[in-house]
């Protein structure tokens, strides 16, 4: 049973207020612990913000200046784009010349006579009189212009299968597309790939049953009375003359020297074409890299040099109650300042990144091995702490002259750091830095015991819990002492009243 607490009834003192004031003094060490805990949490969050920014920058490097495809972007022009279109796929060199289109590639088709089918939604046993398990084979031309010797097989039960459902299966599972026209009652079969396979480009066969034979679409039916009566149009290859060389392709879209060419129509006069680096798109990626690099080093250097206001400690809950919201915001802005000041990991990263940028890239084939050669240099203003500046005219000229040389500066791979491109070096430095920061501050999914600041926070929580238990004991002790005093005063008062009564009674 808890001791009864007696206020200042006998002494006339405000015992509650006195004990509250005494406890304020006792709480000072606890307030300092909570302030330290808050500061550690701020520091942890600021480290994580740094890691998030470095992670985003590393991804931007990977998707931008380090990717070979960034530098193969080209603008291609053709004198008649309605007949021929050309786009670069993976070529690092340019192309130019003429092309004449003699004929376009066509897909093979087979069209049946009137099938007599009235309702394509009825079962095939009803609409075509088929019985027993049916198994069909469909062979068609492949993308490379050869016939698929294996083909695709489909098995079905006429009692449950309809023409519509079978057509759906054929269209999904084979290299042909089938269409039934309810108006003419005819069935068309079209190869999905164009080209001439030097023979039948579509081969329809009944492996069991008589589906194709009944439609008179099978070349070698069992019943000779049901011989093929459909209309067959074999596929055709595209024929064209490229820079004086006449050749063919099974498709109207094909690649030559890393460029994709699409034939759209026949020509009567040669079409001229040429390509050149898409300077604007390549420049855009490099400018984005420089902008984000500048933002990163500005942020990190700002944190490293941010002033630490030692007189501004994190506010306690009691202090916040006595302040306006704007006052709290301004106070905490200074209290939080300098959490990463002079941090060795971040400082080392800044130094290493500068080395990454300005160490020449060795082993290249272009003779270009430094950023300054393509118009990127460091700001002469020392206050900007290594900010990169772009000479756009010089960079454009370098891109137009040799995009591959730009790629080697940024993305070249190599066995040593000196042989690697700047982008690869930077990503390695960023990775090492993020790993070190994570050991200090963890990440959102980390538990406290897996990183150093988290272990400190756990320790602080334990200290706070122990001290709060101690404060409860101290407060109880104060109350016991004041209660004892009140009881003593009360007894003294009672004795005084008794004596006064005794003295008064004898007069």
UniProtKB/TrEMBL annotation:
Principal place of residence: secreted
Intracellular or extracellular location(s): Secreted; Bacterial flagellum
Domain Flagellar hook-associated protein 2 C-terminal: 235-493
InterPro entries named among the record's database cross-references: FliD (IPR040026), FliD_C (IPR010809), FliD_N (IPR003481)
Alphabetical UniProt keywords: Bacterial flagellum, Cell projection, Cilium, Coiled coil, Flagellum, Secreted
Domain Flagellar hook-associated protein 2 N-terminal: 11-108
Signal peptide coordinates: none
Top-level division of the source organism's lineage: Bacteria
Family membership: Belongs to the FliD family.
Its job: Required for morphogenesis and for the elongation of the flagellar filament by facilitating polymerization of the flagellin monomers at the tip of growing filament. Forms a capping structure, which prevents flagellin subunits (transported through the central channel of the flagellum) from leaking out without polymerization at the distal end.
Quaternary structure note: Homopentamer.
This protein's name: Flagellar hook-associated protein 2
């Amino acid at each position: 049973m808890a001791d009864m607490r007696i206020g200042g009834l006998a002494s006339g003192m405000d015992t509650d207020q006195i004990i509250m004031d005494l406890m304020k003094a006792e709480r000072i060490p606890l307030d300092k612990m909570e302030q330290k805990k808050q500061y550690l949490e701020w520091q942890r969050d600021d480290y994580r913000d740094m890691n998030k920014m470095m992670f985003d920058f590393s991804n931007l490097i990977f998707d931008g200046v380090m990717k070979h495809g960034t530098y193969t972007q080209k603008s291609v022009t053709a004198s008649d784009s309605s007949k021929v279109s050309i786009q670069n796929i993976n070529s690092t060199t340019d192309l130019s010349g003429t092309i004449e289109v003699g004929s376009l590639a066509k897909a093979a088709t087979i069209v049946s006579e009137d099938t007599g089918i009235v309702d394509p939604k009825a079962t095939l046993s009803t609409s075509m009189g088929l019985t027993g398990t049916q198994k069909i084979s469909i062979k068609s031309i492949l993308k490379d212009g050869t016939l698929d010797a294996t083909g695709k097989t489909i098995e079905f039960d006429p009692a449950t299968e309809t023409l519509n459902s079978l057509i759906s299966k054929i269209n999904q599972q084979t290299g042909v597309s089938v269409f039934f026209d309810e108006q003419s009652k005819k069935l068309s079969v079209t190869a999905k790939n164009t080209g001439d396979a030097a023979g039948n480009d579509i081969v329809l066969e009944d492996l069991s049953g008589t589906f194709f034979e009944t439609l008179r679409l099978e070349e070698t039916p069992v019943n000779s009375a049901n011989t093929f009566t459909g209309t067959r149009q074999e596929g055709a290859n595209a024929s064209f003359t490229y820079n004086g060389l006449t050749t063919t392709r099974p498709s109207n879209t094909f690649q030559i020297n890393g460029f994709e060419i699409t034939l759209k129509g026949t020509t009567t006069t040669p079409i001229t074409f040429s390509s050149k680096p898409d300077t604007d798109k390549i420049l855009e990626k490099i400018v984005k890299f420089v902008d984000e690099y500048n933002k990163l080093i500005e942020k990190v250097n700002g944190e490293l040099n941010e002033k630490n206001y030692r007189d501004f400690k994190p506010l306690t809950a009691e202090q916040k109650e006595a302040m306006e919201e704007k006052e709290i915001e301004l106070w905490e802005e200074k209290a939080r300042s300098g959490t990463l000041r002079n941090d060795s990991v971040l400082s080392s990263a800044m130094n290493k990144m500068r080395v990454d940028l300005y160490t020449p890239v060795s082993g290249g084939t272009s003779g270009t091995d430094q950023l300054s050669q393509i118009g990127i240099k460091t700001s002469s203003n020392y206050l900007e702490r290594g900010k990169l500046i772009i000479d756009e005219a010089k960079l454009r000229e370098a891109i137009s002259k040799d995009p591959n040389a730009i790629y080697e500066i940024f993305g070249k791979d190599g066995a040593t750091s000196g042989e690697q491109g700047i982008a690869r070096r930077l990503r390695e430095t960023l990775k090492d830095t993020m790993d070190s920061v994570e050991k200090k501050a963890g990440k959102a999914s980390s538990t406290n015991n897996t990183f150093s600041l988290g272990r400190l926070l756990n320790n602080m929580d334990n200290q706070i819990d122990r001290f709060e238990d101690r404060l409860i004991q101290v407060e109880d002790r104060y109350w016991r002492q004041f209660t004892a005093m009140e009881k003593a005063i009360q007894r003294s008062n009672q004795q005084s009243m008794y004596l006064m009564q005794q003295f008064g009674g004898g007069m």
